[in-house]
Amino acid sequence: MGKVEIPVAIVSQECNKRTVSCTGRAHRGVAGGKMGYQDPGLPDDLLSRIEAMMPGMTRSDVAIARKLLAAPDSFAVSSVRAIATDIGVSEPTVVRFCRNVGCDGFKDLKFRLTRELAFRQAQNDAAIPMIAREPEVREAGGGTPTSSPSHYAHLHGRAVEALNAVFAEAEVAEAASGAAELIAAARRIAIYGIGGSSAILAEEVHNRLFRLGICSTVYTDSYAQRMSAAALAEGDLALFVSSTGRPRSLQDSLDLAKYYGARTVAITDRDSPVGRDADICLNVSLSQSQVHEFQPNPMRYAQLLVIDLLAFLVAERLGPQARQMLRQTRASIAMLHGIAPQQPIGD
């Protein structure tokens, strides 16, 4: 087995002192050696942050901010001299403005602005109307709009599409069978997921397995993922849940787990780094169709279907052990609120 190169990430973070008035208005103050408008409640994205800072800015900075917000695309490709001349301020004033809003200088502001505009454009390209807009129906006395039946139908349709897509993958059932064999035979299982629904679904895998009597632990912190993967050995299993299969911490953890002799299973896109490198990959890919910006990708329904299938197959292989453990765990809850006759023992 070739030696795996373990990447080392060094992250530095500048801690700034912040000065805020009792009215919540941002003031100019010294922050990490720089003059800036500091407020703990300011947004992270540059354009929103500049807009939020404007009430506490000087007249010159307000003029620069207005020009930037009015035409950010033009600002991102302009020179400091052109901006200063157009507004009627000095070039150092423009540079100070950049530092006041949290950038290292004019070039850094342009870089961040370009990156943010590209991100916003990507979001706009991906965001399409979910349905034709209908008149909003509001609860009696005002308030927020109620759920539209057509929204409900659209969300239901996307969920069904995701389930049908993974069900149509013949390889998923075959891969699930092999993964169930590894899970049932493993001495212990480390489960990995990070960010959003992937971390929640990793918790669900753990929730399904420990009740079958399987020794499993879930890790959703990137540091803990690397450390736990380095503690695995032959006879152990690392199981990864990821929407994209690309988070760096998951790739590193998979490499470490394999290096120390553990087997690996992934519920992710088979063409992703994690999907390609895992011993077994249960292919669940991101939807190729566009998704409304307010709607999470429906692939989490497909991931949950695969998790249910895995848990069922593992329980079948464990047989009497799984049945006894489920009875014991169910009995521990029944002591609290009694028996619910319609609830399956696997819940």
Write the layout of secondary structure elements.
Layout: E1 27-31, E2 34-38, H1 46-53, H2 59-70, H3 72-76, H4 80-87, H5 91-100, H6 106-126, H7 149-167, H8 170-185, E3 189-192, H9 196-210, E4 216-219, H10 222-230, E5 237-241, H11 248-259, E6 263-268, H12 273-277, E7 280-283, H13 299-318, H14 320-337
Parallel strand pairs: 3-4, 3-5, 5-6, 6-7
Antiparallel strand pairs: 1-2
Helix pairs in contact: 4-5, 7-13, 8-13, 9-13, 10-11
Explain this structure:
By secondary structure, this protein is α/β, with parallel strands linked by helices. The chain has two domains: 27-125, Winged helix-like DNA-binding domain superfamily/Winged helix DNA-binding domain (Arc Repressor Mutant, subunit A, Orthogonal Bundle), CATH 1.10.10; 153-335, 3-Layer(aba) Sandwich (Rossmann fold), CATH 3.40.50. Helices cover 51% and strands 10% of the residues. The chain has 14 helices and seven strands. It has helices at 46-53, 59-70, 72-76, 80-87, 91-100, 106-126, 149-167, 170-185, 196-210, 222-230, 248-259, 273-277, 299-318, 320-337, and strands at 27-31, 34-38, 189-192, 216-219, 237-241, 263-268, 280-283. A five-stranded parallel β-sheet has the order 4-3-5-6-7, with helices on both faces. Mean pLDDT is 80; it is low at 1-35 and 125-143.
Quickly list its features.
347 residues; alpha/beta; Arc Repressor Mutant, subunit A; Rossmann fold; 2 domains; five-stranded parallel sheet; two-stranded antiparallel sheet; 14 helices; 10% strand; disordered N terminus
